[in-house]
Specification:
- By secondary structure, this protein is mainly alpha-helical.
- The protein has 2 helices and no strands.
- The protein starts with a helix and ends with a helix.
- Keywords: Membrane, Transmembrane, Transmembrane helix.
């Protein structure tokens, strides 16, 4: 009886584990991508340039 129950539940747990693994894989890819950006300090530079461009736009735009 116990063996039969475990046999019936294994495919469900296996499919759940696969979904979780796929989700974790995507999460790790996102984390790795951001870590690489931070390692080369690309993200702070992108943010800095974006803020700088925004600042220039506010300075050069004609005031109402």
């Amino acid at each position: 009886m116990n063996k039969n129950k475990s046999d019936n539940s294994t495919p469900i747990f296996f499919s759940l584990d696969l979904k979780i693994l796929i989700f974790l894989n995507f999460l790790l890819l996102i984390i790795n991508g951001s870590c690489i950006l931070f390692r080369f300090q690309a993200l702070p530079k992108i943010l800095y340039y974006y803020n700088f461009i925004e600042w220039i736009e506010t300075k050069t735009s004609p005031k109402k």
